[in-house]
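ok so i was messing around last nite and threw this chain in just to see what happens. nothing serious, just curious
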Amino acid sequence: MPLLNPSITNILIWLIAATATAGVLARPFQWPEAVWAVAGAGLLLMLGLLSPMEALRAVGEGGDVYLFLIGMMLLSEIARREGLFDAVAAFAVNLAGGSTARLFLLIYALGVVVTTFLSNDAAAVVLTPAVFAAARKARAPALPLLFVCAFVANAASFVLPISNPANLVLYASRTPPLADWMKSFALPSVAAILATYGALRWMERKALAGVCERDVEQPKLSAGGWTALIGIGVTAAALLAASSMNLQLGLPTCILGALTTGVVLIRARTSPLPVLKGVSWSVLPLVAGLFVLVAGLGKTGVIAGLAEAVQQATRASPQGAAAGAGVILALVSNLMNNLPAGLITARALAGAAPPKVVTDALLIGVDLGPNLSITGSLATILWLTAIRREGESVGFWRFLKVGAVAMPAALILALAVRIGLGG
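result:
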């Protein structure tokens, strides 16, 4: 640490973290989000506010998340290249029977399934290209359908422990057994999913009132496409098995993603370079930068302060503490992204040891909160990256207009249901 007054040091750390976070949110000069996160982390090192060993330790804490993302991005890219998304899109369009509203519902239901069994990041990475293809084939307005990918990715992200990497970050090694998890989160998840659907459907009612194409040609899935589909299915099964045994998810996801990609490329005798170039690698330094920023904030005493605040609020009223903590964390997740927010909260919970209802409410807040702003979660950032690749873009205010309706409705309802269950 530099020879500065501790209060000045803390102010500098907070200023750097806030500036870097603002850069991630606003993307000045249209620079990628990763540039701002890495720049903030680098500045902490340059000024001696964080030692190289502390920074390396922080980067290493994200190891499981990096592996998980690599595996999912490889699966998504090989599936896209092998036409799996086009085939799924055509099937959905034909099933919708010319109704844009029915197509919207089908995509939402598919998003719930993908998020539940493959995680919210997978919903953003895997589902978004398929929805683009469906919108093109159906000649339907793309943006309302694309919003499904972003919002359902967070709304359904606590159905299972594997539905969101932030769940594993927040609970750390204390993730409840699957049966206990379902007792706590099954009904709140249903409430969040239905509330989010209702809000989105109402917000986009005009765009969904028309008709779309029907009976589009169903592409024949290639051998590579079938391999990608099988790989995705096997990955989902492996994640469920790993979760039931309380194992980390990153390594099996990465191995299966790489294995699926390798099998497809070897069978087709093609170079891996196009696939590797198609992966959005910039998300990895973004996550690493966020972890380093969290390590810096941890040195300011914020974690100890949060632990004390949770303890005091719980002593006054566990139910009130649960409601307040869930709402506050939901809002904070939009200011600094829910992954670092969840990491800070996990460290605070280790010291506070609150009742289960408080911890569960915090998890609901960290999962649903990011549906307010465009960079509140890693899944939404991945979604934004995916739609930019297709030539579409959504600004901060456009997303906020929808999020300001969808997020509070789902959050309040889910928290009320969970607190009502007691425990």
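not much to say yet. The mean pLDDT is 88.
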